[in-house]
Design brief:
mainly alpha, elongated, single chain, 54 residues
Length: 54
């Protein structure tokens, strides 16, 4: 149930296209990749907390 709710929230969240100029710079892509990993970790932690709270 919770994973379905999270999926529906994600589907409703605005999707932002990656600007083409970022694809040419490896340093910017590395920073973006690190930021995405950090965000994923925070989301997984929040999801675990919510599951435990329910």
């Amino acid at each position: 149930f919770l994973s379905d709710r999270v999926r529906s929230i994600y589907a409703d969240f605005p999707q932002i296209a990656l600007p083409h100029h970022l694809m040419d710079d490896d340093d910017d892509m590395q920073k973006l990749s690190e930021a995405l990993v950090a965000a994923k970790t925070r989301v997984e932690g929040c999801s675990s907390f919510l599951k435990a709270a329910i």
